[in-house]
Design a protein that fits this description.
The chain is of the alpha+beta class. Among the domains are: about 120 residues, no CATH class; about 100 residues, no CATH class. Helix content is about 60%, strand content about 10%. The chain contains 7 helices and 6 strands; from the N terminus they run H-E-E-E-E-E-E-H-H-H-H-H-H. A 6-stranded mixed β-sheet has the order 1-4-3-2-6-5. The longest helix is centred in the C-terminal third of the chain and has 66 residues. The protein is elongated, with a radius of gyration of 58 Å. It starts with a helix and ends in a 16-residue tail after the last helix.
Amino acid sequence: METRSNNVLVGSVVLILLAAIMIAAFWFSRVSGGNDVEYDIYFKQSVNGLAKGSAVTFAGVPSGQIKNIELWKRDPGFVKVRITVKEGTPILQGTTATIQGSFTGLSEIVLDGAVKGAPPIVCPETNAASACPDGVPVIPTKPGAFGELLNSAPQLLQRLSTLTERLTETLSDKNQESITGILRNVDRLSGNLADRGPEIAATLAETRLMVQKAGLAADEIAKLTASTNALLNEEGRPLTADLRKTVQSATKSLDTLDKTLAEAQPGVRAFSQQTMPEVGALVHDLREMTRSFRAISEKLDQQGAGSLIGSPKLPDYKP
């Protein structure tokens, strides 16, 4: 009877302790979570590696955990992840959420991008249904580098497979024979070039000499052009000046003759006293002009047109 009463007492004490522990745990969980703030994150990508209770960090600092994860009922293309973060965590406008995975298969949500002075992310008083579809503020997402790599892995593998197939087709037996022939021809060509190296060097030397001679010839041509210009300036200009003077003199004589003929009407006396001397001067000027033209024509007949602008050619010297 006494043994039975001891067992009942021990069992009662154990039950009371278990109940106290459960109540304390529940109480502490409510106390610890009473200051947490809930946010929703909608991912339009695979959330592989995330689970209820996964860590949530802000710039690498542990700040909360995942409370719930499920397909969004309004649009199954999105995965809704509800998180709880500690009060005071700077979830401000500009903060984004990223899934950071690892090769171990475990993932976590990383929050970053808070801007100093920006307002916090809260549900607005107006149009709250669209900004907070499930009653809590929404943190926008940003694709992570590792997640993008995992998402693009199938496409990358497909492209690698296609590249491998094309390389296999390119390096077929027939193409390998063609490549071998090309390499053989290149080797033969390089050998021929090596054998003709001295000839190529000699050709280059002759080309260099020819270029030098061409430069000297260009200098001589420049000197000849300068000499020709000087000759034209020295001898061509005086001859042209003489011809111009003769023409001017003849023009003056003709003008004088016109005036004399205009004055010839008063009588023979005025004609004999004024016109005859002018006619004599005109005849003299015409003779001079004729003599000049005759000299020019003779020079053209004997020495050609070049004699008018150049000096007479010296006779060849014979010893």
